[in-house]
Amino acid sequence: MIQDGDAAPGAGRGRGLWTRTRPVVRWSPALAMTLCERVAGGELLYAVCLEAGMPTSQSVARWARERPDFALALQEARRAGGRPGRGGGGVWTYCEATAGAIFERLCAGESLTAIGDDPTMPCLSTIFYWKKRIPDFADAIAMAREIQAQRLCDEGWSAVQAATPETAYLTHVRLTHLRWMTGVMAPRVYRTKAVEPEGAQKRVDVLMRRFEIEADPVTGKNKVVAYCPNPETGEVEREDTPGWRRPPGVPLPG
Q: Which residue, 93, 168, 202, 253, has fewest beta-carbon neighbours within 10 Å?
């Protein structure tokens, strides 16, 4: 079922703070069969890949992409081990080395969804569980997102430089979405829309008139009486009081 092929080297020297130097483990049908047998027995693939003499999870993922027969055998082994046939593992146990691999792949531009779909990685729900419960992992994810946002900005500038009159509209559409993505990934650095700087607050005084209906003591007819607060004293004044003057800023009745 698993065919031999050219040797495929595993991951080399880690580029980040969390990775370690690993010896190269090359492809072999026997090694692939061992991986499938252990996964079928219920072991976690990404935990097996941490052992000495085993390929890195990135190597196994590449083998699965390059060899469809191995990918199929791996899916069958996952089902036999009581795991989903596709996607990453739904195990909650935190693994620092796996968290470091997630950080590296995010920095390289992969999405969390793509990483969670990798059969050698934890599933998306596990990644978010770690993010919620492990502060160091949450900080690493935030840093990786900022790095992703910077990469997208650089890619946007390259797209602008390569734009032509024929591709200008498509470039505009892509840059619009790219601007939104950078704002989501690094909201403290990039904003999804322009924000005007805050100016000095201006004080606005609002004076409310109160109107009442009462009988005129001379004519006996009903009339409307207005009351207005004085903005300087705060006292409510009746507007038809002899000698009453309209406070500054109070408009005439319209």
A: 202
Task: Find the angle CA(115)-CA(117)-CA(122) to the nearest 5 degrees.
Answer: 70
**CA dist., res. 122 & res. 138, Å (int):** 15
Contacts 24+ apart (CB under 8 A), 190-193: 190/149, 190/153
Q: List domains and CATH numbers for the chain.
A: 29-133 (1.10.10), 149-185 (no CATH), 207-240 (no CATH)
d(CA 207, CA 186): 45
Between CA 68 and CA 64 the distance in angstroms is 6
The pair of three-digit structure tokens given for residue 58, joined into one six-digit string = 């990135």
Write phi, then psi, for 166 (nearest 5 degrees).
-75, -30
- pTM score of the predicted model: 0.45
Conformation bin of residue 84: beta by default, left when phi > 0, alpha when psi is -120 to 50: beta
Distance CA 70, CA 1 (A): 8
Residues 148-201 pLDDT 10s = 888 877 777 788 778 888 888 887 787 777 776 776 676 666 665 544 555 666
CA 137 to chain centre: 14
